[in-house]
Amino acid sequence: MHLIQILLPLFYYERKPLPSEDYRRVREELTDRFGGLTAYTRAPAEGLSKDGPHETTRDEIVVYEVMADELDKDWWRTYRESLEARFHQERIVVRAYAIQTL
């Protein structure tokens, strides 16, 4: 069993909010494909990244996660690329963990 997390930005680079329709569409796509979804949206997470020795970029993100029996890396790579285009991002983080349900 795998837990797959998608970290989605709340804003374009100019701090303009992304349309709520984009998030609704992702929720529907993932729920249809995996039968369920957990969304961490109430208190956006903060992402920090170093852009140079003296520059730090701050992002506010939401996290969507699904569980899947198998990890289809090709499907996830293609889906990540579609999200990057849809959300106007150079890179969206999609990460997977092998898990054991209890």
Query: What is the correct CATH architecture?
Result: 2-Layer Sandwich
Q: Largest sheet at a glance?
A: 4 strands, antiparallel
Quote the average pLDDT: 88
N-to-C CA distance: 11 Å
Rg is: 14 Å
Number of strands: 4
Could you tell me the CATH topology label: Alpha-Beta Plaits
Query: Order of strands side by side in the largest beta sheet?
Result: 2-3-1-4
Low-confidence stretches: none
At the first level of CATH, the class is Alpha Beta
Give the helices and strands as they follow along the chain.
EHEEHE
| % residues in beta strands | 35-45%
Structural class: alpha+beta
- Identify the overall geometry: globular
Percent range for helical residues? 25-40%
| Total of DSSP H or I helical runs spanning 4+ residues | 2
Please give the domain count: 1
Query: Please, what is the oligomeric state?
Result: single chain
Detailed description of the structure:
By secondary structure, the protein is α+β, with helices and mostly antiparallel strands. The protein has a single domain (2-98), classed as Alpha-Beta Plaits (2-Layer Sandwich), CATH 3.30.70.120. Helices cover 28% and strands 42% of the residues. The chain contains 2 helices and 4 strands. The protein has helices at residues 20-34, 73-86, and strands spanning 2-9, 38-52, 55-68, 93-98. A 4-stranded antiparallel β-sheet has the order 2-3-1-4, with helices on one face. The radius of gyration is 14 Å and the shape is globular.
Map the helices and strands.
Elements: E1 2-9, H1 20-34, E2 38-52, E3 55-68, H2 73-86, E4 93-98
Antiparallel strand pairs: 1-3, 1-4, 2-3
